[in-house]
Amino acid sequence: MSGHSKWSTIKHKKGAADAKRGRLFTKLIKEITMSAKVGGGVVDSNPRLRSAVLAAKKASMPSDNIDKAIKRGTGELEGVTYEEITYEGYGPGGAAILIEAMTDNKNRTTAEVRHLLSKYGGNLGATGSVAFQFSKKGYIAVERSAATEDALMEAALEAGAEDFHAEDSDIYEIITDLASFETVKAQLEAKKFALQTAELQMIPSTTVAVGDKAPALLKLLDMLEDNDDVQKVWSSGDIDDQYLQDA
Length: 247
What we know:
There is one protein chain. The chain is an alpha+beta fold. The protein has eight helices and ten strands. A four-stranded antiparallel beta sheet has the order 3-1-2-9. Strands 5-6-4-7 form a four-stranded antiparallel beta sheet, with helices on one face. Strands 8-10 form a two-stranded parallel sheet. Helix 2 (about 25-40) runs antiparallel to helix 3 (about 45-60) and helix 6 (about 150-160) packs across helix 7. The longest helix is centred in the N-terminal third of the chain and has 17 residues, at about 25-40. It starts with 6 loop residues before the first helix and ends in a 9-residue tail after the last strand.
């Protein structure tokens, strides 16, 4: 897959561990609240909210928590006002890093992100310094045990998928453009494929081989994602398989 970053695969594998840390609910509630604020509180007519609610249900978040987060977003309940911020920078090995954050205190979050980048071998860049290297795409992951490669690839491409990735040992990955994401997702679900992940991601147009800087880059990305205000992290770093065993 041209430009595909293995950080997406690593994040997929980290999902269960993330849920145990307790930060996942906080991030999901923020995303649900912001999605409802931006696009309204009706799940069926708000794709971003629908994806956030599905992720919350997958993480076993109580329905009451989901409903309250939606109502805070639509203003039916009082709550914290969040601001969306995108940070750009570089990590070990020259990998571009794109960070999406949601915060009620921009100064605090900027200071924390800058500190983490500096502490773990990266640096914060100016707005526009790396964003042009990424494109927003639909990303769907399916466990290998849930489908055969030929059947899934044929169904995905027929539905309008842009690319199909089968190199990882645990999952198949499907990439779509923004306009086709919901259609591809719906058609795969209609054909009874069990989707492990279905979300929008920032995919790098090209990747950077980081070599033996991979452990340092993985540490930085992990620490950024552990920050309560950071929602998502994308990287153009191409990481050799030998460094993924403990990721």
